[in-house]
Amino acid sequence: MSNFFNTKLEYLRGVGVQRAQLLGKELGLFTYGDLIQRYPFRYLDRTQFYNIVDLHDDMSFVQVKGILRGREVIGEGPKKRLVAKVGDASGELEVVWFKGVNYLEKVIKNHQEYIVFGKPTMFNGRPQMAHPELEEVTEQKAGQSFLQPVYNTSEKLKNYHRIDSKAIMRMVSDLLKIALPQVTETLSPALIQQYGLMDKAAALQQIHFPQNQDLLDRARFRLKFEELFYVQLKLLRQKDQRKVTLAGQVFNEVPTLVHFYKDIMPFDLTGAQKRVIHEIYKDFLAGKQMNRLLQGDVGSGKTIVAFISMLMAADNGAQSCLMAPTEILADQHYQGLKVYANQLGINLGKLTGSTPTRVRRELHEQLREGTMQMLVGTHALLEDVVQFRNLGLTIMDEQHRFGVAQRSKLWQKNPYVIPHVLVMTATPIPRTLAMTLYGDLDVSVIDELPAGRKPIVTVHRYDANRLKVFQFVRDQVALGRQVYIVYPLIEESETLDYKDLTDGYESVSRAFPEMQISIVHGRMSAEQKDFEMARFVNKETQIMVATTVIEVGVNVPNASVMIIESAERFGLSQLHQLRGRVGRGADQSYCVLMTGYKLSKDSRTRLETMVRTNNGFEIADIDLKLRGPGDLMGTQQSGVLDLLIADLAKDGRILTESRAAAQAILNDDPDLARPEHGNIRRHIESLPATAVNWSRIS
Ligand code: ADP
Ligand code: MG
C-alpha cells in the first residue's frame, strides 16, 4: 500500500495529537494503516427485529421494537434501579438499568416507540434485558438495517477519554472515506478470479460496515485468504531457498551406530521410531542442511531417536548437542544417555546454569578441541563462550520453550557449515497450525507408543471424595508404585500458588505419615530441585508433591499415579503433558483429575476430553478449538499471533487453499518476476523489512 497508510492518526479528522497518543499507547494504533486493519471483533445484528415472545436465554445481542408501557424507580441506594416495560404485538419485555437511573428516568418517554437492543435473559419465564441500548424509532431510522461493527478498546479509553467502540467506529468511517481510493489490489487477477474473491477496497469497506451477512462473509474470506496466502508464501520461499542454498554435513558412516543397535540398545525400536530415524538419515546423506520437526506424543520415545542421530554425527567426526528447556530435564537426558555413551566410549558432557566454573572451563576446552563429541544442556549452552570444533547437529527438546532467536543462535555455532537442526516436541500440533508455525520445517511424526504400554486410566473426582483418592494412593504405594501430586502454578500469582502448594504438602504429609514425600517447585534452587528429584527417582520417596515444573519430559517409570489438584485451572495440553509423566513403565497407570463442584463449561469439556482419550493429536485439536491458537504453546514466538483476521483454529480450509495457491505460483514463477504477479511482488516490497524476511532463517 502507498505511503498514505503510513500517515499518523493525529492527522485524521477529529483525532488530534492527544487522542492519537492514547490510541497508540492503549491500542497499538499509530497510522491510518493500523486503524483500517483493526477489524471489528464482532457485529451487532441490527438487520432484523425479533418478536418479544421469541426471545430466549441462548440469544446473544438482539433487537426488538416496541412501545414503552411504563417505568418506575425501585429500591434505594446501591439497589436503586429503573424498571420499564416495553411491549410489541407478541408480548412484553422488562428492561432494567442500575446505572444512570436519574438521567434515564428523565429522558425516556412513555408511549414512545423504541428500538431496544441487548442480551435477553429469562426470569420466571419472562424475558428481561439489563442495560439495553435504547433508541427512539423516528421516521428516518425506520427503514435502516445494518450490521454494526464492535471494536475492541480499553477500559481507560472508554471511561476517561470517551473513546468507546462507537467513537472508533466513527473514526474508521471517516478514514474509509479518504482511504478507499488509495487502496491498491494486493492479489493477482488470476487468484481473484479463481477463488471468486472480493477486491481489496470493497473488502475493507465491507469488513467494517457490512451491508449484509453475505457481503461480510465474502469480505472476511477475501481478507483471510490474503493474510494466509502471504504467510504461506513467505514460509514456502524460505523453505525452498534453504533447500537450494544451504549445505549440510554428510553423515554416511555408521559403525558405532551398528554396534549400539546390535549390542547395547535395551529394546527394539518401534516401527514409527525406525521410520523417523530413516527420514533423518536420508537428510544426513543429502548434503543439505536438515531442518526437521519431530513430533511425538509423550512417552513415544523421542530421546532415543535424538541419541541415535547424535551417534550418526559422532560416527562422522561431528559434534552434537541436545538442549532441554529445564535443568531437571537436561539432567535426566544426561543420566540416561551417559549409560550408553560410556559403553560406546563416547565423551558426553553436561552444561547447565549450575555447572561450576571449573567444570565449565574444562568443558569449553574439550568442546573447542573436539574431544567431547556430545553435549547435553540447557540454554546455558547458547552462551557465546561455548564454542565447538565442529558442531554438526543441534537438537532441541520440547521446542515450544525456545524462541526463534535462540534457534538461530545455535546455527551460528558452526561458522563453516550450518549444523543440522532437529526440533522435538511432545505438544502435538494440529496440522493447520503446524503448517503455519513450522511451514519452513520438514515434519516427522512418531505416532506409535512402544509395545506393552497399557493406556493410562484417567478419572475425574470431586474434592469431596478426597479420602477415597488418598486410600487409592495408599494401595498403589503398597504395591510398590510412586505417586505425583501436582498443584497449579499461575504466573500472575506465584505467592498464592506457593501457598496452595505448601498447604497441599502439609495435608499430604498428615494424610500419609508413614511415607516419604518429596517436594519440587519453582522457588527452589536448582540443587534443591535436583536433590528432591533424585530422591524420588531413587525410590527414597514415594510421593512427589510438585508444581508444573515436572511437566516437561521427566521420566520415572515406576511412578504410575498422577493426581492433579485443581485440574480445572490447567489447559488441556498441559493436563495431557502432565499425564504423560506416568504410563512409562509396565504397570497400569492412573491419572486422577481433582476439582471442586463448580466448573465452567469449558473446564468440563477439558476434563471430559481427558477422561475420554489418550490421543495427543485429538486433544490438541480440541484445545485449539477451545482456546484459539493464541494460547497454544509455541505460538507466542511464531508470529501467528500477529494475524489480523484469520483464525487458525477455524480457517483450516482457507489455509490449505491459500497454501496450495502460493505453492502453485512459486512453482511457476519462483522469483515472482512475471507481469501477472506484479501485484504480489509490489505488495511484498511494500511491507516493512521485518514483516517479511526473505533471508534464510525465521
Ligand atoms: P518422550 O517421547 O516423551 O521424550 P522418552 O524418550 O522419554 O519419551 O521415552 C519414554 C520411555 O520409553 C523411556 O523410558 C524410554 O527408554 C522408553 N522407550 C523408548 N523407545 C522404546 C521402545 N522402542 N521400546 C521400549 N521402550 C522404549
Ligand atoms: Mg522427552
Automatic annotation (TrEMBL):
It comes from the Bacteria. It holds the Pfam family RecG_wedge. CDD domains: DEXHc_RecG, RecG_wedge_OBF. Keywords: ATP-binding, DNA damage, DNA recombination, DNA repair, DNA-binding, Helicase, Hydrolase, Isomerase, Nucleotide-binding. One of its GO terms (molecular function) is DNA binding. InterPro entries: ATP-dep_DNA_helicase_RecG (IPR004609), DEAD/DEAH_box_helicase_dom (IPR011545), Helicase_ATP-bd (IPR014001), Helicase_C-like (IPR001650), NA-bd_OB-fold (IPR012340), P-loop_NTPase (IPR027417), RecG/Mfd (IPR047112), RecG_dom3_C (IPR045562). It catalyses: Couples ATP hydrolysis with the unwinding of duplex DNA by translocating in the 3'-5' direction; ATP + H2O = ADP + phosphate + H(+). Residues 471-630 form the Helicase C-terminal domain. One of its GO terms (biological process) is DNA recombination. Its EC number is 5.6.2.4. Transmembrane segments: none annotated. PROSITE patterns: HELICASE_ATP_BIND_1 (PS51192), HELICASE_CTER (PS51194). Residues 283-446 form the Helicase ATP-binding domain. Belongs to the helicase family. RecG subfamily. Plays a critical role in recombination and DNA repair. Helps process Holliday junction intermediates to mature products by catalyzing branch migration. Has replication fork regression activity, unwinds stalled or blocked replication forks to make a HJ that can be resolved. Has a DNA unwinding activity characteristic of a DNA helicase with 3'-5' polarity. NCBIfam families: PRK10917.1-3 (NF008165), PRK10917.2-2 (NF008168), recG (TIGR00643). This is ATP-dependent DNA helicase RecG. It comes from Hymenobacter setariae.
